[in-house]
Amino acid sequence: MSTAEIQPSTAATDVPELVVGFDLDMTLIDSRPGIKAVWDLLAAESGAAIDTELVVSRLGPPLTWEMANWFPAEQVDAMVTRYREHYPAHAITGSLPLPGVAESLAAIRALHGRTVVVSAKYEPSVRLHLDHLGFDVDEPVGDLHGADKGIALREHKATVYVGDHTADIDGAHAAGAVAVSVATGPFTADELRAYGADVVLNDLTEFPAWLNGYVLEQRLEALMTRLASYPSMVVAFSGGADSAFLLAAAARAIGPANVVAATAVSPSLPVSELEPAARFADSVGVRHVTPHTHEMDREGYQANAGDRCYFCKAELVETLQPLADEFGITTIATGTNADDAIAGFRPGIRAAFERGAITPLRDARLTKAQIRETSRSWGLETSDKPAAACLSSRIAYGIRITPNLLARVDRAEQAVRAHLTPYGVRNVRVRDLGESASIEVDAELLGKVDSAALVELVRAEGFTAAALDPRGFRSGSMNERLAEPDKYR
Q1: For residues 158 and 154, what is the distance between their CA atoms, to the nearest angstrom?
Q2: Considering the entire predicted model, what is its pTM?
Q3: Considering only the top CATH level, what class is 391-488?
């Protein structure tokens, strides 16, 4: 089953996709040594008295502008051609990334954003630089300067543009993007600020923190605006970090009296989750209900094929609908976040989508990390709560699910967790592979724990064999077996 088949592809989002544009020279790379080498060659070949130190002190404008400072107008085109002939061999390897580039690009990826480089440089040269340094950039664009950069920025829907030159500020503003300036080029921070930069940073090492704060603010604003548009809401509340945050946000946006937290009770819910869920709902002042779901009555759920989660989520939403009707509430929301929406194998998302449930966290593009960060700032006790998928996720695909199997996994996990509590364990999974079990704990504990003791604890709950997974805990590791079944036989 393909990703397209199991996920809604048409669900609207409340904020635009994050697209960040960058200038190249003196923003991402220090290209001065390589560019100076090429200009030195031109000076030697032509006999022109070129002050190459001056040339590299004012990078930014198009090459033809600089060439006109040293050659007669009738020679400029020919010298530009010669410059570009020398460039690949003499300018690429001499250029180095500026501090903070790798971290800045990684920060954009972590926020599910895209990057575009828009430079006045000859586009083939732009590509050579990016390829040589291995920069993770989605689209390189060259041959644009000043306000003309806005053409490419608008085309790629960039909302932020980062550069070192006043002309880059013109480009950002022409596109309606936030102009972020770094003082790593020919202008000081004060000069960039005075020219009209929206944000001025010393260099790119400061960019990830600024971006994270800026994007989180935008996404939270979108979330709260969205939630405030509903008069009332039922939140499918598992007790995990995502649905707890959604519950708290809804209570803030429309008032706790207008929010109902619904925690589904079934054999697939770990027994230890119910009391904390009730306590959390009470802490934010919302009504907590515990309807019983009967996913075990659905053949597709019991069969435990790759689409098992579809039947579970279908049962959940169909159970909550009459409950919502009883309260006169028309909106059911789940805690699906932006990471879930791109994680690949999520048939449950499609089931909820088809039944009209909304996903405010996903639609605001909030990631798991952002949810945890905001939960901490709000003082929510769930901010660092480990992921806790339903017990059925521990049963290998193809093994028919029964209440007894779920109870066995639950007991085994509780025993392992109790044994590892002195170690500060966060994540524990006992994966039911049939008669044997795979034990997953936090990777950093693997060299500290007695694996034989863990195996005995798990076997005592009814497994004939067990082994500690040397790779440690991995969310969704059963999907590895689904993708490569022969590898795990």
Answers
A1: 6
A2: 0.85
A3: alpha beta
